[in-house]
Design a protein that fits this description.
This protein is an all-alpha fold. The chain contains 9 helices and no strands. The longest helix has 26 residues, at 49-74.
């Protein structure tokens, strides 16, 4: 197996582990064991645990960007709505969602914060460029996305019979 293939495998395993346990709670030994490589080999490919975490964060932002781009291209007449629908499908993958939330939670670390801030800023700029939306439309889009993150993490759809959950979901997909 090539180093690039192994790198991809490690990144997939890292996303799963970081999604559940975060940057500080995840063991690189567990990630290495999960893929069947040694910990030194993992570090040879990624440098540090934080570098591996940041690669996982980058992968998440790349997937979100690619999802938005495909949706906008497929539905040019309703780009933002299509992006929102596609995003809802993306974060229905619990690991994708939790990894994204772990990225935000790890922003107490200045290096992580700088990367997450830069990637989020770039995503906002890209969505603006793809859609031509106004500042207000773009901010509403991202506010709704953040709400969807919380609703998905809480699995509000499974408790719609509770009044507070129904109220939260009213005007959202």
């Amino acid at each position: 197996m090539s180093a690039e293939q192994r790198r991809s495998q490690i990144l997939e395993a890292a996303v799963s582990e970081f999604a559940l346990n975060g940057l500080n709670g995840t063991s690189t030994e567990v990630i290495a064991r999960r893929v069947g490589v040694s910990q030194p080999y993992l570090f040879r490919l990624f440098g540090t645990k934080k570098d591996l975490f940041l690669a996982a964060v980058g992968r998440g932002f790349d997937r979100t960007h690619d999802t938005f781009e495909r949706a906008a291209e497929a539905h040019p007449e309703r780009k933002l709505k299509a992006m929102g629908e596609a995003y809802l499908q993306l974060v229905s993958d619990r690991e994708e969602l939790l990894m994204q939330l772990q990225a935000y939670a790890a922003c107490g670390d200045p290096e992580v914060q700088a990367v997450v801030r830069e990637r989020f800023s770039r995503l906002v700029a890209d969505v603006t460029a793809m859609t031509g939306g106004s500042d207000h439309e773009i901010m509403d889009f991202f506010r709704s996305g953040m709400f969807l993150n919380v609703a998905t993490a809480l699995d509000l759809l499974s408790i719609q019979d509770e009044k507070w959950a129904r109220l939260c979901l009213e005007d959202h997909p």
